[in-house]
Design a protein that fits this description.
By secondary structure, the protein is α+β, with helices and mostly antiparallel strands. The protein contains 8 helices and 13 strands. Helix 4 packs parallel to helix 6 and helix 6 packs across helix 7. The two termini are about 30 Å apart.
Length: about 300
């Protein structure tokens, strides 16, 4: 059943999930200690992002970093039907990647501006889920953030509005010109938790006790944060699960220690190296690839 045909008070209600099937987006966040090929996770794996796009077909986007610069490629077409997707992913080498496969719930479907990830400076943001009562929440978000940030909101999704609310709170904690280079994950964590608290405060209604579904991935290329609220999420550190071939050189001959971290809406392979992220959790990943999972 398409989301548009489901009454608002039933949306995201776990009590009726056996009756109502709501298909939303899928997201992926990847960090490694060295620039790496990630084509396997995006294209070749048993349940790669391109396979998932057959059920999430309203657009795709890939954000990545190379030599300190942030790049985003987005298309308002199904990834499995778009030759640009495999062409990009086959040659993509990066130490930080965010990929999103879109199934529209709020915002026009075939619209590139509504595709994730969204970008502000070096920050990338992707969302799987829906902000409840968004019409009311949108007004409050726009009242909260300054007009200088409002003008950067190009689409009409709940996700993009939430992203710029986060950017506003982050800028209140860090000098504006330094947020792109932020390496302190605790500062970003504080801004993200405040963002979620505000969304919960503004979206609460008397008709339903369920909260907004808020699975996020955020990064500026140095640190990464992810949340699980209401949708599935898995993580792995295994190069086998990610499909990366380890260097055959002995450890003492390598220039760097290879470390990997990947978070994804679904397991990308049938390997045993995937772990489920607990519901209502926040993941932080530091520049040296140390990660922590804490309750939201």
């Amino acid at each position: 059943i398409r989301l548009a045909n489901v009454p608002e008070f039933l949306q995201d209600d776990e009590q009726v999930i056996h009756v109502i099937v709501i298909i939303m987006c899928r997201l992926l966040g990847f960090k490694s200690s060295i620039p790496s090929l990630i084509h396997h996770s995006l294209h070749d794996a048993e349940n790669a992002m391109i396979i998932q796009s057959k059920k999430h077909f309203d657009g795709w986007g890939v954000g990545f970093y190379q030599k300190g610069e942030c790049f985003v490629v987005k298309r308002a077409h199904a990834a499995f039907e778009d030759f640009n997707f495999p062409q990009l992913t086959k040659t993509l080498i990066s130490d930080t990647v965010v990929c999103h496969i879109r199934q529209a719930t709020i915002g026009a479907k075939k619209n590139r501006q509504n595709c994730h990830p969204f970008q502000c400076g070096k920050w990338l943001f992707a969302h799987n889920g829906t902000v409840k009562n968004f019409n009311g929440v949108k007004k409050k978000i726009l009242e909260e953030i300054p007009k200088i940030l409002q003008k950067h909101i190009l689409g009409n999704t709940d996700s993009e509005h939430v992203f710029y609310l986060f950017i506003h709170y982050l800028k209140s904690l860090v000098k504006r010109h330094k947020i792109n280079e932020l390496r302190d994950v605790e500062i970003a964590k504080f801004a993200l938790v405040k963002t979620i608290q505000k969304i919960d405060e503004w979206s609460t209604t008397k008709r339903s006790k369920t909260r907004s579904t808020l699975n996020f991935v955020l990064t500026n290329g140095y640190i990464m944060l992810a949340t699980r609220r209401g949708k599935s999420l898995f993580h792995t550190e295994s190069s086998i699960a990610i499909g990366i071939q380890k260097s055959k050189k002995p450890a003492h001959m390598r220039n760097e220690i290879d470390k990997y971290f990947l978070v994804s809406s679904e397991k990308l392979s049938e390997s045993d190296y995937w772990e489920r992220v607990p519901e209502n959790s926040l993941i932080t990943v530091t520049p040296d690839l140390k990660f922590d999972i804490v309750p939201l």
